[in-house]
Amino acid sequence: MPDIITTGELLIDFTPVKAPGTENAVCPNPGGAPGNVAVQLARLGVPAGFIGKVGDDSFGRSLKSCLEENGVDVGGVVVDENVRTTLAFVHLDKEGDRSFTFYRDPGADTQLREDEVDKSALEECKALHFGSLSLTTEPSRTTTLNLVKEARAMGRMISYDPNWRPALWRDAEKGVQAMGLGLELCHVLKISEEELALLTGTDSIAEGARALHEKGVALAIVTLGPDGCVSSLKGQLRHHPTYDVKVVDTTGSGDSFWGAFLSQLIQNGYDAPEKLPSLSQEELAGFCRFANAAGSMCASKPGGIPAIAGREDILRCMEETDILETDFRLI
Questions:
Q1: d(CA 27, CA 115)
Q2: Is residue 331 included in any domain, yes or no?
């Protein structure tokens, strides 16, 4: 049975590629943040499962097969002949950072009903991870929130990624409010600097972290792109720089980062919310270094799931790659 279950969107990312004699060529890659996290966990030896819905089309079937081939338990994947699998077209700037155009009205991932979810897997797992894209519309919003609440009531550790995608919210203000629901349900949180400002109303990482802890978040990791990340545990903030790799495509790198981080928590015995306060700053720094290396390796290759690295490549990055020097200062 899975130690960690992820739930949410599973989709196809159409990623730009360079092809002779063509412009704007794209390559379809399996993706979706919770699916990416599950694959990274599985590649690092953590039993992982996925709950979600895809369409009964070639994209959906290939996505389910991709998870299965990567060792992810797909018992919770629903294939629906009445809706199509969500598609996302990735646009990259000169630095490799991306934006998205979604074909999802509705997409299969938004149509997961509560009566389609086998919650028995919660009885055996240690943690449940979810993201905000499941909260954009019904019925997936209610399905996801109820699943998370039930897992939390059972004592499972809850992980959350706000994953702000403004194009998927018809009303930005309501979107921010909906994203905020996850803060009161999770124990561990991955949040970008932009998302931190949106959800706490401050540009200060220190003040934003305090606001998160007041909402009940035990451990927050603020991702900073080339500046690495900042951890906040028990009121202590610490900056962790990342590795100096050539960035090709950041699609999935944040998910790879988080899957690697969660793997370190689970594999080192921090697999329940009551255990998090005993995590030392030294251990946490090691987990962040490992996660930074995983995210860096993913960003050095094109695509989402195809770019996710295994343990040997991550450790090699940590041993052989210089730390990226930036002007970041934690204030």
A1: 35
A2: no
Residue 40 neighbours by CB under 8 Å, 6+ apart: 255, 256, 258, 259, 260, 263, 294, 308
Altogether, the residues listed in the chain come to a count of 331
Query: What spatial distance separates the first Cα and last Cα of the chain, rounded to whole Å?
Result: 43
Q: Which amino acid, 257?
A: F
Residue 158 has pLDDT above 60, yes or no: yes
Nearest-angstrom CA–CA distance, 209 and 152: 22
Specify the CATH number for the domain of residue 70. 3.40.1190.20
> pLDDT for 108-149, tens place per residue?
999 999 999 999 989 999 999 999 999 999 999 999 999 999
**Element containing residue 320 per DSSP (H, E):** helix 311-320
What does the block give as tokens for 315?
């450790």
DSSP codes, 51-98:
EEEEESSHHHHHHHHHHHHTT-EEEEEEEETTSPPPEEEEEE-TTS-E
- With the C-alpha atoms ordered 108, 134, 8, 116, is the resulting torsion angle positive or negative? negative
Number of domains in the chain: 1
Evaluate whether residue 223 is within a structural domain: yes
